[in-house]
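Quick illustration for those who missed Monday's session on complexes.
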Amino acid sequence: MLKAIYPGSFDPVTNGHLDIIERASKLVDTLVVAVLENPNKSSSLFTVDERKEHLRMVTKHLGNVEISSFKGLLVEFANEIDAKVVIRGLRAVTDFESEFQMALINRSLNTSVETFFISTSVEYLYLSSSMVKEVAMFGGNIVDMIPAEIKDFVLDKYKK
Ligand code: ADP
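Prediction with adenosine-5'-diphosphate bound:
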C-alpha cells in the first residue's frame, strides 16, 4: 500500500494543484492532500478549514484522495500517518532550487520518506495561488485558473 502526501498552502487551490492531485492519485493507493498550518502566514486569504473544504469540494470525484492539515515538520506528519512519499509539483527552473533543497532537508530528517516531483502540465506553467489573488484583486478573469466550485469564494473576498 503506497500512501503519499501532497503538501502545500493551497490558498486558494488552483487548476495547477488539481492537475497534480489527479495525476498523483493515479500512481498511489492513497493520496493525502495536506494544508500546511503556517503560523507566520497571517496574510492568508482563506483559513485552513476553508482551504480544506475547498480541497474536499474539488476532489470529491477522486476516491483515494483524503484532505488533511499539519503543523510543524512534514516528515513528522509523514511518520504519523505512515506515508512514504511526498509529492511536489514543479513548474519552472525557478521552483527547482527551493524544492530540491526542501527534498534534501526532508530526507536528512527522515530517510524513509522520498520526494517525487511531477512536472506541471504546460497550460499551468505560470499559474500560482499568488497570481490568482493578484488577478482577482484587480478584477481580472480567473475562470481558467481555479476550479469552478471555488471561483465565487475567491471573488467574494475581493468584493468592495
Ligand atoms: P507553496 O506554498 O510551497 O508555494 P503551494 O501551496 O502553492 O506551494 O503549492 C504546493 C505544491 O504545488 C508545490 O510543490 C508547488 O510547486 C506545486 N504547484 C503550485 N502550482 C503549480 C502548478 N501550476 N503546476 C504544478 N505544480 C504546482
